[in-house]
User: What shape does this take?
Amino acid sequence: SQWGEENLQALSIQEGEDVTMNCSYKTYTTVVQWYRQKSGKGPAQLILIRSNEREKRSGRLRATLDTSSQSSSLSITGTLATDTAVYFCATNMGYKLTFGTGTSLLVDP
Amino acid sequence: GPKVLQIPSHQIIDMGQMVTLNCDPVSNHLYFYWYKQILGQQMEFLVNFYNGKVMEKSKLFKDQFSVERPDGSYFTLKIQPTALEDSAVYFCASSSLTGGRDTQYFGPGTRLLVL
Assistant: This one.
């Protein structure tokens, strides 16, 4: 598998809390992407971070990439109930995206 | 933002029948993809299509599967014949650059149930 087993988890938090989700990958990649998938919908890209970037921010989101440990994280500050979703990291391999198993995040209002 | 449409949203068919899943990709995109997601599991790549050709496919893309985009119309995934294990949600995606280096835009999925 492309992904380490620690990628599979479920989190339940209260609205307003901050949360960090992690993933690790096994094979070389130049790009890590984070996607969010809400119930009954297709995935939507949140952040794309390249191997020459250690950190990238977008609004309340912050992604990090550590190529030496082949790991990435996605942090959300001040979570909202609407952040409830499954969050996937994905790497590019040739023409395809390879997704991790995801983190199911439940934000209670 | 750019939208990918998928038709139908749900499909129930009997095992052995043929099914065609339709995708209307983002208008100026050149690369098209199908992914398969079984309930509760991760999304898995099936196939990538560009310039009328399959560029890459996974082992999940069985001989019973085929893709085409005739004359710039829908990008389709055909399964003939279907098997029980084909029950899943199939997502279409499109992008304007090769592979994952650019954003892939996903449709809402077609939920296929094979009985």
In short: The radius of gyration of chain A is 13 Å. Chain A has a mean pLDDT of 88.
